[in-house]
Specification:
The structure holds two protein chains of two kinds. Chain A has helices at 2-11, 19-47, 53-75, 83-100, 102-117, 157-162, 188-201, 236-253, and strands at 13-14, 17-18, 125-128, 131-138, 142-147, 152-156, 165-167, 173-182, 212-218, 223-232. By secondary structure, chain A is of the alpha+beta class. Chain A folds into three domains: 2-100, Helix Hairpins; 120-167, SH3 type barrels; 173-253, Alpha-Beta Plaits (2-Layer Sandwich). Chain A is elongated and about 125 Å long. Chain B is mostly beta strands. Chain B is built from one helix and 19 strands. In chain B, the strands form four sheets. In chain B, strands 8, 13, 15, 16, 17, 18 and 19 form a seven-stranded mixed sheet that branches. In chain B, strands 1-6-9-10 form a four-stranded antiparallel sheet, with no helix packed on it. Chain B has a four-stranded antiparallel sheet with strand order 2-3-4-5, with no helix packed on it. Classes of the chains: A alpha+beta, B mainly beta. Chain A binds chain B through residues 170-175, 201, 203-204, 206-209, 230, 232, 234-235, and chain B through 60-61, 63-65, 114-121, 123-128, 131.
Amino acid sequence: MMWSSLDSILQSKVGGITVINIFTFALILLISVILGKVVRLNLHRILREKIPITTLVVLEKMSYYIIVFIGFMVALPYVGFSLSGLLVAGGIIGIVIGFASQTVVSNLISGIFLIIEKPMNVGDGVNIGDVSGVVEDVRILSTTVRTYDGVYVRLPNDKVFSSNIQNYVAHEARRFSYTVGISYSDDAEKAVEIIEKLLDEHPLVLKEPSPSIFVEELGDSSVNLTVKVWAPSSHWYGVYTEMLWKIKVALEKEGIEVPFPQHVVHMAKEGK
Amino acid sequence: MFGKYDLNEKLKEQDIEITMEGRGKRRKYYRKASGEEVEKIIYADGGNLVVCPVEPVNIPDMTISEHLLIEFDKPFVIEPDTKDTFYAKFPVEVGVFLVDKKDVEQIDIFTKTKPKYTLYGPPEHGVICKWWKSEIYTEKPEVDRLYEGIIKVDMTNNYCEWTEMKKIVFRAFDMKIFYDDYAYMHAYLKILKKAMGETTFNSRKPRNMQESLDIYLAKGIKKLEKKFVMEWRFK
């Protein structure tokens, strides 16, 4: 008796749609909302320490709304909407939106790959294409860089993704080199000793890998020494700018000349 | 020099001078060490001055590294499945703190040592370390207490072969420094594989010694990882 009355209620129609279909519609929506929230929570838990919070918020929202949207589309036929009509209309709209948002999607996909691949972190000194500076933020659509002149540069992620990225601080230590010319009349071994001593005194010239100093070339005007130095990546530029002048001063103090480019001209004698 | 002092006390040892001149809340902090002079205006209601050895990775800049590598002048070879204890020396950096009931504030750090850094491991994955060279001692060595401290290392070779060691690396986060006449640390090294070991510190305060103030806690820096895994050999 009770079952038959319940069945008749469920089969009764409201505006041409059975009550059971309205319930099914609501249930699918409810499940999709719950599923969306579960996915959102888990994404937050898994990725919160791996990607920037601004990007994570976008990813969470996107995943939530996509799941709810799919649930809504699945539930729609239960309340009398035909998906075939929607699909045709959606297809046309999709093509239009697809053309219009081609760049946005390209940036979005590149952004996701940049976040997964992580070629740079916020605060890293980088060179992306022709832009050099410090990474301010890596977002889902764009990457912002503060150049060494203090200029704010926003780079679309598809451009960043397809560019050569040089990250100056990705490794713990990096090497830089100088070429130091000394005169042909000076003792190259003594010059090497002076430079070695100078490098040894600097705290940030790494002990290991040790610096290497050697005669690289017998040049037109000078004997060219190459000085290769390893320093912590985070502080290398300070060492680089400091040491060259110190090397020049130390060599000159010990009587070793850093010569100007010069040519010896022999004048032909008259009558010969 | 190491200890807890009233703000008015004048400290002098070797070529190091520390004074806090003035009365009331505003005072002038002055320090002279190894030819370098530092002056600061300190606005403090009261408290004490604590001078103690700190983790030796702060000078010239604490952002460079949080590791200390001690290179031995001669290699140390240890047979399998044995334990041994040795002593070495480490560079001393002296911290000056203002301590009251509410807070600890670091006001100065200085050293008589000449800092030098090195890389432990390959450039792409290794770690930058403060470098120091020491002999290996079987008993506690004599030290110039403002220049070097003593580190006792209890070493266990859990690996099935002889192991040769030329260097040992410690994480500064984990360091526990104590002092009385000299700075002292007690560390452990476990050799796990041919090229892998683990260093940790004993946090128990030795008798008649004081515990140094922790620079990371004083700065409010959270310590996440403590032990250090030496994964790029001991040579």
